[in-house]
Every structure is written in structure tokens, then in C-alpha cells.
């Protein structure tokens, strides 16, 4: 077939199977959707209204320069317009990043078990992956620094806060990593969950470095996962590389209008952050009541340590799925002894608690 | 900078400057938006309603397999589910196509002056371009066949109907091209305007070939340019290559819901096609009244031959833009003696007619 050798050799596997595919497989719907780190607390009503209005105007392409949205983001972060590029979710931006950064065979360094979609795009563009292990269920900043100094990869991936563990590092540690990036390397700082992190975890947005790109999204705290809008910020001449290859009309009119309205509703964001924090507390209580340890989280999900190996956690996961509650689990040892549960409303968490209890009893039997 | 040499060498130019950028430059809005081949007649009301509803549910990712939409498309076209892949507009799919097909330096063959965004993605993925000229303002099927036999490019681009000329070929000619594709070559059949073409121009959708990919969109006749949803269909093992690299969650929940609803509203589609045909007639009359020849069109726009060289057409274009009517023109000679005007409502076409008259007088002076 007339495709390139790299693509023909790629596996057909995908980073995440959607809950809809599982529903089709099981032949029945999930009654709680707690697996994809979405925000059940939803978008701002102002964003919903703006998107509905934009739906009627959607005969017209959205502004390919995302001018109003980039201005609003830049103003919010205290950075310059030229330092922001908007794209179709962080995943979409990762695809572009791999396209503009990698030569065939270039290395990307990440943590073993970290966000798989980054890896997917690296591989899809001909890069190779190198890993350092997590340390005490957190990304190991020192090990990443040591390895990147030794191997000088083209890309280094670091999520803060982290998915799938929910852990975070303080700004001081992140800054240490930023300072250590060698010439010829780009640090990919995935801050998808930054709106949910303690302020002390985030270096100031205005700490622009020539070889650090920071990615943020409207999918998590803003509750707009299904809308597909995110941004990358960093040095103007670095983010400008995205403009040379991006799908200029790719961010929909509704997405631009919704994100702009969402930025204007700080009350909704603050309320959502509080509701998520409260629900995280409930998830920790549910885990404790089941005799399990949960990990501290600065995200909208909680990793629960099932206390044994991956096969055991997998049985627990399947039990929970079978009880019509959608959750996920990390794919790689030793993180795969955990299940990962997104926050939900009280009734959804009750349903999860019951499913967990029953699934543990079944897995133990 | 830690980006690849190919990207660093790319120019900062983009295929299309948006009307919003021109409005910012001129400091005033366009009063008629007739330049981007959008459909002012808008999406189906059912699609608008479905998108508004989906806006509220947009805390959740859309189905990454686009199951319902692909089923509906496959049923409509009389092809199999596995033969359809949905993406973020044809432009987005062209980016993926270049990613999966091209090795560095691979050639793509197209017509000189044809859709520039295809070229943009080829270049962005390290491919090189080869061109055959238009012949009598239509793509030259025989010349494309001859050149692809001689040079065996990896990709051959052919739009039917064509943008920017609006011309079309009959199915017989397209089939001749399809039959001539050598092994190791993929024919990229851009059918963005197929819903506006005479039925005799389109080979049946079920004529699946191992090395032909056909691209269609909801941006044109369906009036959903700002929504970003399109699809590619072809042999299952060919379109499956897109699944290995695409942004799985990239098509928004609103886009999927809107496209599905739009497919269900055949009345709106039929009405829109009729309104577009009528407006095309008016545009031809406006051109004739101004003493200009217009090209026959099977699209939602009309190319008007200004009768002299590119510099003259450019002066006419600028005159029309200056009168707050957004239109575009082909970028390459000899097509650049034309201006390209998208259909609009009667009042918008009246405004264009007045702007054209004044601009011609000015350009002649």
C-alpha cells in the first residue's frame, strides 16, 4: 500500500478506548462516567450559551488566528499575544509538536506510565521513546534531569499535576527541571490540570524560556472536554513553529466562542474547583472505607491503590465496569496496581462506592 | 531552536488569510462575506438544535470512534462502516494523509493553482510538489495521467468539482483517472463540493479502489464550515492508516451531533442546493452586466474572469474589499486573472454588484 513504512509498522492500538466503545461491547450504558477525567460539573452556563449562539453562526469558518481568544488568554496569564497558540485540544497540539520537532529516530524522554497520547504522537511521527520510572508514585524530577543531561533527547515530557497518579511537584522542582533543559531539547510541560493545582505548584506563566512549551486546556477544570480547545504558550519564536503546520481553521467557531466565554466566568471556575476538591475528598473516604489507600491528588481524579498487583487491580476494574461504572487504570507496572477514578456527583460516587465494595469482594474470592 | 530543519525552513505564510484578519487590518467589518466558500444559507435547523443540545453535554469527550456518524455516512453512501474515517475538516484529514503517506522528499502531483492547503500539508510533512497546468480553466485529466505515469508520485490531487475555478469533470473522466493510478500512488479525490455537483460528475461511492481516497465535508452544501467535520472514504485497509495517527478525540461532541442531524435533514440540503444554484445564476448575471465572463460552476462560488492580467484582477479585488465585500482570487497565473465570489443572499449579491461596478471603473481609470 502507498503509505510510508513508519505508518505501516505502527500498531492499530490507540491510547484510550472511549466509554462508548465499552458500552457497545457490553450492550448496556454506563450509569456513572468516571473514567475519562471529564468534569461532570460541566462548562460555564455562559460558555454553553455562547456555543449555542455560535452554532447558528457556524456556516462561517472560525477566525483562523483565534484573535479574541488568544488576547484573552494572554491577558489572563500576563504574557504576550505572540506567546500563545490555540489548538484542537492538547492531544492535537502534541501531534503538531511531534511534527515540528522530531527528525526520524529522535528521542523523547518521559516517565514510564505517563500520559500515553504524548507517546502515541511521538511514535506516529517517527520518534523513539525513552523512559525513567516513577518514584514513589510521582514523576522523578532528578532522574529526568540526569537522563536528559546524559542522552539529550529532542523532547522531555513532564506533567504537573500528573496523570494518571494525580500527584504534583512544587514550582521549585519544576523550575529546577526547566533550568536543566540542555540546548537542543524542548521541555513539554503538560499543565492540563493546572487550574486544579495549588498555586505553589506552578511557575509563573511569565517565566518564558526559549526551550520550554507549556500546554493548558479547557477540557478539565473548565469542563469542556468535548469541545476541543487548548493552548500552548512559550517563547514567541518557538510557538510560531506551530503556525507553519497547524490546521488553521481547525478550532471550531463554537469552541472559540465557548472558551472565550468560559474565561470570563471566574465564578464558575472557582465553584468547580471547590466541587472537585470536595469530591476528591469523598473518593479518598470511599477508598479508605474499602480498606484501600488513595493517592493525594491535585487533579479531578483520584488514583486508588488496590494494594496488590496489576492482575488484581484489573479484576477490580472489570468488576466496577461490569457494574456499569466507567473508570480506568494505568497501563504499566508498578502504577497498574491502581485504579483511576474521576470525581463525580454524590449519587455517582455512591454508585462507585457500592461497585468498588462488591468488586473487591469478588476479586478477593 | 530544537525544531526539525524541515519546519525551520518552512515559510510563515499560510494558505488563506481569514476575513477577520482583513477586518482588523482595515479597521472595519465586511458587510458581505463572499470569499471563503461558506454557505450563508446556514446549517439545517435540526443540526443547530443538535449542536445546542450537545453544547450542554460538552463536559464529556465525543465518541472517539464516531460510531453513529460513521454508520450514518456509510448507510447514506452505500459503503461499509470500515470504509469511512471522520476528521476535523478535509484540511485536518489532508494533514494526516501527508503524515501517513509521505517519506521525506516524496512527490505530490497537483494542478498549478489548485487548492493550496493540500500543498501546505504536503510541504509541512516534507513532501515536494509537482504541477501540471490547468487547461481551459479546468484540471487537465490527461496531463495528470501522463505525468503520474511518468513520475509515479506518492500522491495525486484532483478536486471534482474544482476550487478555485468551480469547474467539474464527468464521472467518466474521473474514472479514467482512477483507473490510471499506478501502484505505489494514492489518488486524493477532493469532493468537498460533491453535494453541489450534477450526479453525472460523481463515480458511485461504492466504486472503492485500493489506491483512491475520497474526501467529503459538511462545510459546503451542509453549511457547517465553522463546525469542522469531514470524512474520507476508501478501501478499509487504506483508511485504517488514519486511525493509527489521528487525534482520536479531535472531532467535537457538537460536531458529531450536528453532522448526524444534518445528514437526517435532506429537505434542507435540497433547498440549499437550489438556493445556491439560483445565486450562482445571479452572480453570472452580475458578471455579464459588468461586461465580464464568468465560468460555469458546480460549487457554491463563481469565478469571474476580469479579462486582463493578474495585476488588473488584483486591483478589482482590492476595490471590492475596500467596499466592505469580502471575496478572494486565485493566487497563480493564469487563473489569477479571475476573482472568486461565493454565493450569498440577494442583498449581499446586490452589494457585490455595486462594488464590482465601482471597482472596475476605478481599475480601468
UniProtKB/TrEMBL annotation, chains A, B:
A Pfam family it matches: Aminotran_1_2
Pathway annotation: Amino-acid biosynthesis; L-histidine biosynthesis; L-histidine from 5-phospho-alpha-D-ribose 1-diphosphate: step 7/9
GO molecular function, one term: histidinol-phosphate transaminase activity
Catalytic activity as recorded in UniProt: L-histidinol phosphate + 2-oxoglutarate = 3-(imidazol-4-yl)-2-oxopropyl phosphate + L-glutamate
Enzyme Commission number(s) from the entry: 2.6.1.9
Top-level taxonomic group: Bacteria
Gene Ontology terms: biological process: L-histidine biosynthetic process
Gene3D superfamilies cross-referenced by the UniProt entry: Aspartate Aminotransferase, domain 1 (3.90.1150.10), Type I PLP-dependent aspartate aminotransferase-like (Major domain) (3.40.640.10)
Family: Belongs to the class-II pyridoxal-phosphate-dependent aminotransferase family. Histidinol-phosphate aminotransferase subfamily.
Protein name: histidinol-phosphate transaminase
Organism: Aureimonas flava
Amino acid at each position: 500500500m502507498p503509505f510510508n513504512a513508519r505508518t505501516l509498522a505502527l500498531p492499530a492500538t490507540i491510547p484510550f478506548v472511549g466509554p462508548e466503545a465499552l458500552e457497545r461491547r457490553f450492550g448496556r450504558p454506563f450509569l456513572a462516567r468516571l473514567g475519562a477525567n471529564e468534569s461532570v460539573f460541566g462548562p460555564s452556563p455562559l460558555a454553553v450559551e455562547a456555543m449555542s449562539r455560535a452554532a447558528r453562526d457556524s456556516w462561517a469558518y472560525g477566525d483562523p488566528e483565534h484573535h479574541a481568544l488568544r488576547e484573552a488568554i494572554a491577558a489572563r496569564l500576563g504574557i504576550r499575544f505572540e506567546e500563545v497558540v490555540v489548538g484542537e485540544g492538547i492531544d492535537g497540539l502534541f501531534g503538531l509538536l511531534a511534527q515540528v520537532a522530531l527528525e526520524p529516530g529522535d528521542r523523547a524522554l518521559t516517565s514510564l506510565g505517563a500520559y500515553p497520547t504524548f507517546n502515541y504522537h511521538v511514535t506516529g511521527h517517527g520518534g523513539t521513546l525513552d523512559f525513567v520510572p516513577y518514584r514513589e508514585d510521582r514523576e522523578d524530577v532528578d532522574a529526568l534531569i540526569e537522563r536528559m543531561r546524559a542522552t539529550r533527547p529532542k523532547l522531555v515530557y513532564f506533567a504537573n499535576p500528573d496523570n494518571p497518579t494525580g500527584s504534583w511537584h512544587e514550582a521549585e522542582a519544576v523550575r529546577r527541571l526547566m533550568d536543566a533543559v540542555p540546548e537542543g531539547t524542548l521541555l513539554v510541560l503538560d499543565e492540563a490540570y493546572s487550574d486544579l493545582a495549588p498555586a505553589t505548584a506552578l511557575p509563573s506563566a511569565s517565566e518564558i524560556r526559549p526551550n520550554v512549551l507549556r500546554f493548558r486546556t479547557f477540557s478539565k477544570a473548565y469542563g469542556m472536554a468535548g469541545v476541543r480547545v487548548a493552548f500552548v504558550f512559550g517563547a514567541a519564536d518557538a510557538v510560531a513553529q506551530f503556525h507553519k503546520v497547524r490546521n488553521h481553521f481547525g478550532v471550531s467557531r463554537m469552541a472559540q466562542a465557548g472558551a472565550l466565554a468560559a474565561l470570563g466566568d471566574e465564578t464558575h471556575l472557582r465553584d468547580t474547583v471547590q466541587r472537585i476538591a470536595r469530591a476528591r475528598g469523598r473518593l479518598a473516604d470511599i477508598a479508605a472505607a474499602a480498606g484501600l489507600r488513595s493517592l493525594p491528588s491535585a487533579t479531578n481524579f483520584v488514583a486508588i491503590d488496590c494494594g496488590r498487583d496489576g492482575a488484581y487491580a484489573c479484576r477490580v476494574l472489570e468488576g466496577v465496569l461490569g457494574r456499569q461504572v466507567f473508570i480506568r487504570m494505568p497501563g504499566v507496572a508498578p502504577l497498574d496496581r491502581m485504579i483511576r477514578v474521576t470525581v463525580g456527583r454524590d449519587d455517582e460516587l455512591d454508585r462507585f462506592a457500592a461497585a468498588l465494595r462488591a468488586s473487591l469482594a469478588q476479586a478477593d474470592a
